[in-house]
Design a protein that fits this description.
Elements lengths: L18 H11 L2 H14 L3 E3 L1 H16 L32 H4 L5 E4 L11 H4 L6 H12 L3 H12 L11 H8 L3 H12 L11 H12 L4 H8 L1 H5 L3 H8 L3 H12 L21 E5 L5 E5 L7 E3 L1 H10 L3 H38 L1 H6 L9 H8 L3 H8 L3 E4 L2 E4 L7 E3 L6 E3 H13 L9 H10 L6 H10 L5 H11 L1
Helix pairs in contact: 1-16, 6-7, 7-9, 8-9, 15-16, 16-18, 18-19, 21-22
Length: 492
Amino acid sequence: MTLSQKLDIRQGQQLVMTPQLQQAIKLLQLTNLELAEFVEGQLEENPFLERDERANAKERGETERSEERADAGASADVSTLDTDYANVDADAAPGDAASGAGDAGAGDWSSVSGSRQQLSEEYDPLAQAAHEITLAEHLTEQLHLATRDEVQLMIGAHLIDMIDDGGYLRADTDEVAERLGAEAPEVRRTMRLLQGFEPSGVAARNLEECLRLQLRDQGLLTPEMDLFLQNIHLLGTHDLPSLRRNCGLSETQLRDNIALIRTLNPKPGLAYGRDDVQVVIPDVYVTEAEDGGWKVELNQETLPKIIANERYFARMSSASDGQETKSFLNEQMSNANWLVKSLDQRARTILKVALQIVKHQDAFLVEGIRHLRPLNLKTIADAIEMHESTVSRVTSNKYIHTPRGTFEMKYFFTAAIASKHGEGSYSAESVRQRIRELIGKEDPHAPLSDDRLVEILASENIDIARRTVAKYREALGLPSSVQRKRMAKRAI
């Protein structure tokens, strides 16, 4: 066998992720707040990007007309662009660059609109609200009064940041020490310092420690009560006989200990103000149409309105002499145009996915959660001729406002549970809701076991295993039938 060298020409296809395509993919999965922050950064960096004042003026005019005329309205068409998200994956379906947003939900059951009346900017309810001191601010103030040591101040500030709203320190001291480059004993010493602050019980790592700190501050932490706290989990499961036996208590002593525990605060941090709650702003609105169908529209308030200033680009290009300067200007103008198109394509893709979700979950909007249908990403991807990964990115952290409330788009994607007789299937979420309803209506003194729940669901044509019922019940935060029976006895 002889070795030789030769040149071959081969033709093949290869997916190339250009920086622009990577940016388009990134825009898909951003929330509306993250998108607004990203666009603000681009407006500062790119000289040819600017806000579309014409769109703002148009919206102001529409708002004024809507105040004068109740039936005034406007709709925004979604233009077809060349950003092809279907090419993100090699096995993706053919792109939909030639189809408009209206094609995604064609039919009499929906109409597409893109304008909503803007909220008044004259009154800000958050600005008028009185400021409540937060738990972090309260602890930080005490920390600076308790120590002047710079190391303790640094460690204490880090630990305070890790305390949740309930007042619990959800962190391992060894991991904190490694992260900060500090000595583990110093971190534990600082943690004990925080545990001496007000409110009593703060910076505890679990419920047992929280109650122990409060009893210690009140001078009630006896050896008998310490043993009682070590078995506090039995009180949570309402297993009073085992609790009494493990602690060696009489009935009277058990009742007295439980009464004392009830005077303590299991979540001391809730007595203080918390950080402002971030209100979820829907990306899509679904309302009833006049013809009895559903009207699906984008929330234009969450969509950045920017344009590429071609006139300014032309003036700058004609005034520049160097090749390097012209290359920079061309690159910035290309990036500006691509961003504008990517934002429009993102909006169109969100709208198309929302249209298909509404189309498949029409029964849920009309009848409620019991009629939520099984749905997966592939069904929506096939309907809009895009890849499943694109649909997954679109539905992440995107919210849709319906007459039944505001839901994350991923809420409508649930697994299918087969029917008993093989006719159709049921959504896992609707089955969970049915389990909640059955337990809510049961006799407290004769609670339904998981086996009994399986029998009832089978009579309703739902084929489900006992372990699945138990898993759903635990996910709903519902105790077992034995625990529910104990709770009913304690309530007598």
